[in-house]
Write a structure and sequence with these properties.
Oligomer: heterodimer
Shape of chain B: globular
Number of helices of chain B: 0
Distance between the termini of chain B: 37 Å
Helix content of chain A: under 10%
Radius of gyration of chain B: 13 Å
Largest sheet of chain B: 7 strands, mixed
Structural class of chain B: mainly beta
Strand content of chain B: over 45%
Number of helices of chain A: 0
Radius of gyration of chain A: 14 Å
Strand content of chain A: over 45%
Order of helices and strands of chain A: EEEEEEEEEEE
Number of strands of chain B: 11
Structural class of chain A: mainly beta
Largest sheet of chain A: 6 strands, mixed
Helix content of chain B: under 10%
Largest interface: A-B, 21 and 24 residues
Distance between the termini of chain A: 37 Å
């Protein structure tokens, strides 16, 4: 099992649609979880930290299921500006990794179509 | 409030040469991490510096080395460049006082090895 695994997509959705990204991680001891977005040829930008109880920020909702080692990101009412690659990120994602090491999934590409 | 800055933005080198990349962290941050991102992949952790010492290292050879200065800025050095070292090199800064230890990325240095 890979350390952080995401559906590579691409996801092509119309404006206004709801889209969900899923991610699994392999180390049950991982403590911190994040979603980053990355535009083409740009740096990753922190979108949300994922808290144990789940959290919401406007149109974005993140959920964490520790028992299943599963993280999700829901985007409601998609905008054209949401088009980007979404990266699932876990701290200490494998048993040999230190707790300071962020491990990134390969990302899921989202295209929101007019 | 300046974010994370990196220099240079682009660099072209030939095989066998050496390169130094530079990073200044976000104001108030004391920790710098370096990542390598190949095309189509998520960033891969190289190492992290805190208190001028390498605190954690990913699975990269000794050709990759770094340094952190008293003002928290950092350098990444790569010796004996290989074609496979061509990538986007990202610096991320964080603060040890932050509970969740979120990392914020600079714009990156795009290295091409010919």
């Amino acid at each position: 099992r890979k350390e952080v695994e995401q559906d590579p997509g691409p996801f092509n959705v119309p404006e206004g649609a709801t889209v969900a990204f899923n991610c699994t991680y392999s180390n049950s001891a991982s403590q911190s979880f994040f979603w980053y977005r990355q535009d083409c040829r740009k740096e990753p930008k922190l979108l949300m930290s994922v808290y144990s109880s789940g959290n919401e920020d406007g149109r974005f909702t993140a959920q964490l299921n520790r028992a299943s080692q599963y993280i999700s990101l829901l985007i409601r009412d998609s905008k054209l500006s949401d088009s980007a690659t979404y990266l699932c990120v876990v701290n200490g994602a494998w048993s040999g990794a230190g707790s300071y090491q962020l491990t990134f999934g390969k990302g899921t590409k989202l295209s929101v179509i007019p | 409030d300046a974010g994370v800055t990196q220099s240079p933005t682009h660099l072209i080198k030939t095989r066998g040469q050496q390169v130094t990349l530079r990073c200044s962290p976000k104001s108030g941050h004391d920790t710098v991490s370096w990542y390598q991102q190949a095309l189509g992949q998520g960033p891969q952790f190289i190492f992290q510096y805190y208190e001028e010492e390498e605190r954690q290292r990913g699975n990269f050879p000794d050709r990759f080395s770094g340094h952190q200065f008293p003002n928290y800025s950092s350098e990444l050095n790569v010796n004996a460049l290989l074609l496979g070292d061509s990538a986007l090199y990202l610096c991320a800064s964080s603060s040890t006082t932050s509970f969740y230890n979120e990392q914020f990325f600079g714009p990156g240095t795009r290295l091409t090895v010919l």
